[in-house]
């Protein structure tokens, strides 16, 4: 039973996001994710985490369902998806600095391979 749960969760983690993004499998993947998080909330004492993850599943809400959302939610989605303005010099410098920081953080643990 332990191996079944372990490998089942592994397969769920690998395939749930692509299945949530594909219209044909969205309902099944959503049901599997919901069942997984509900089982986690019953088996383990991990607080509110499973409930947050159920809510986070809505981030991958398939776009064909957007017309069914309330009007003020659709407007918020349109604003979030709209084309971003060009970056200011300060924002460009910040992006550059963060990029260098991320590269250093990845390279430091791997420096023995260099």
Q: What's the number of helices?
A: 5
Cα end-to-end separation: 43 Å
- Helix-strand pattern: HHHHH
What structural category characterises the helix and strand content?
A: mainly alpha
User: Could you tell me the number of beta strands?
Assistant: 0
Kindly estimate the percentage of residues that lie in beta strands according to DSSP.
under 5%
Helix content percent band: 55-70%
Tell me, rounded to a whole number, the average pLDDT. Answer: 82
Rg from C-alpha positions?
A: 20 Å
In the predicted model, the low-confidence regions spanning at least 5 consecutive residues are: none
Describe the sheet with the most strands.
none
- What is the approximate shape? extended
Q: How would you describe what is shown here?
A:
The chain is mainly alpha-helical and 114 residues long. The chain has a domain of 68 residues. α1 packs antiparallel against α2 and α2 runs antiparallel to α3.
Main attributes of the structure:
about 110 residues, extended, mainly alpha
Q: Could you give a short description of this structure?
A:
The protein is built from 5 helices and no strands. It has 114 residues and is mainly α.
Itemize the secondary structure elements and their pairings:
Elements: H1 2-21, H2 26-43, H3 49-56, H4 71-81, H5 89-107
Helix pairs in contact: 1-2, 2-3
